Amino acid sequence: MRKTIIFSVLILTSIFSYSQDKITNQSILDLIDLGFESEVIKAKINSSPSNFDTSMNQLKSLKEKGVSPDILALMIDKSKAVIENGVFFYRKDDLIKIEPSVFSGTRTSALGAGLTSGIAAAKIKSYVNNSNSSNKVDSSNLSFIFQFDTQNKNDLGSGNWWFKTASSPNEFALTELKQKKNRRELVTGKVRAITASTQMGIDSKNTIEFSIEDLGDGRYKVTPKEKLKPGEYCFFYQGTVPMGGYNNQSIFDFSVQ
Fold first, then answer.
1. What gap in Å lies between CA 155 and CA 150, rounded to an integer?
2. pLDDT band with cut points at 50, 70 and 90 for residue 68
3. Superkingdom of the source (predicted)?
4. Three-state DSSP state, 25
5. Are strands 231-237 and 172-176 parallel, antiparallel or unpaired?
6. Cα–Cα distance for residue pair 28/14, rounded to 1 Å
């Protein structure tokens, strides 16, 4: 009798602790280890905030550890509903949304072009305020989630058109920002006076390669292929610009610590 009471108290304590935090993949495995049936676990998923990793590798691992198909299906469905559109980074077990930073201005560096009588290109530099981003990313977990809207791609009038029109992280460049005293800047184009030509976008030699894992339904996991040293970085849209005077005025910026 005493053992039964102790076991019941432990179960109630476990349930109470889960109710205070978002449930994760590990939470599901813990509930299974405690002996809960599928219906109870599904009820817990439906009544709690969650932060599931439903990538292919994780789903395979969960299946191998005994998680039933109906629970896996609910985890996938729940993870779709939780994440809104945008770019996110991991902070421990939570996904934190990166709110885009708007360019404060643009200037052209004409010194090099002047010294070479227009042969060298003048750089177009865009900059954002503050020398550091408010998005602090731990260098030990440099993975990002891109969640695109697959339903309302033609609705570009309510801001951030440059993200709404995109459908893949391949349309973005990952690059380092140059820190100044009170701002961060990047070269977003070049002008050649001698040919009267303008080249917009990030030069490929200044981009950082990343791998992309398609998680389904407009959701992608993005991981840099090289270790990023501490500093300032951003994802910059380089996809197709729609007709009608649109231009990209924002970046998804973050600091690697």
1. 11
2. very high
3. Bacteria
4. helix
5. antiparallel
6. 12
How many CB atoms are closer than 10 A to CB 110? 14
Gap between the Cα atoms of 129 and 101, Å rounded: 9
Rounded to an integer, what distance in angstroms lies between the CA atom of residue 33 and that of residue 28? Answer: 9
Q: Which residues pair with 172 in a beta bridge?
A: 237
Estimate the crossing angle of helix 25-33 against helix 38-46, to 10 degrees: 150
How far apart are alpha carbons 152 and 28 in whole angstroms? Answer: 33
Tokens of 78: 């729940």
- CA-nearest of 60, 2, 52 to 27 is 52
3-class secondary-structure state, position 103: coil
Q: Helix 69-82 to helix 56-64 angle, to the nearest 10 degrees? A: 150
The owner of tokens 């676990």 is: 41
Cβ atoms 150, 217 nearer than 8 A: yes
Residue type, 93: D
Nearest CA among 113, 86, 105, 107 for reference residue 97: 86
Question: Domain-by-domain residue ranges, the chain?
Answer: 2-82, 86-256
Residue range 54-66, pLDDT digits in tens: 887 888 899 999 9
- Taking the C-alpha atoms of residue 139 and residue 135, their distance in angstroms, rounded to an integer, is 12
Q: What is the largest CA-CA distance in the chain?
A: 93
